[in-house]
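Suppose you are handed a protein chain with no further information: no name, no annotation, nothing but its sequence. What can you learn? This example shows the usual starting point.
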Amino acid sequence: MRGAELDTREEALVAVAREAGELAARLFSQPQSIKMKGKQDFVTAADGEVERMIVARLKTQFPNDAFLGEEEGVKGRGDAIWVIDPIDGTANFANRIPHFCVSIAFMSAGELALGAISAPMYGEIYRARLGKGAFLNDRAMRVAEKPDIRRAIVELGWSSRRPVRAYTQMVERVLATGATFQRAGSGALGLAYVADGRTHGYCELHINSWDTLAGLLMVREAGGWTNDFLAGEALQRGNAVLACAPGLKEALVAATGVGQANADEQLKRRMS
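A reasonable first move is to predict its three-dimensional structure. Written in structure tokens, the prediction is:
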């Protein structure tokens, strides 16, 4: 995709992420109908409303682009695709906890090119563009510099699609490295926090693409390392994810088991 075309999409992405965050914030203050898609898998009326607004805005400007949304699936075909999570952290949102966000990524010809995350209750807009860096509002983000694993905070997401024991074993192994862990309930924000150096790693044994793609680009553009999340059918079916400050790559790959096959190759590419 030519630079001018990507410029236009980047401008539209930041604008729609901000608008979607404002809509989500308004809906947060209103009573919501809540349904369950599965175990601890919440969906509210706000999810659908925010996603429809995002798709409508972007489709008006880019009618030939495709869309993959958490709530409404795939719309359209083509090499240019927007991947949307209208409210990441829906369990938090549904329970009146303000730790949630809107996450939107753009891919061109299979390459992750743009990402934006709006955390409206915190007044934060995260954004990244391939080869152009990652930013929180107007400030450039960088991952933590050579963190000591014994001082590291690693967020460990939980998924009902994997056995509980797999999660608890991962927690035990991460704690054995000397790191501590947390779980805040939004994978997208968890990745954004790694990009900004607030935390030092994020891992989840299964997570969907709409939860991760924007944040993964931010981590990479902020100098961090990630596993090859989009391997295989991950865009549609999800995958394991690991993102961290480069200095923790070896310890966290060993502790989580995520990214072992491609860790050295990817780190070499990122540092070159």
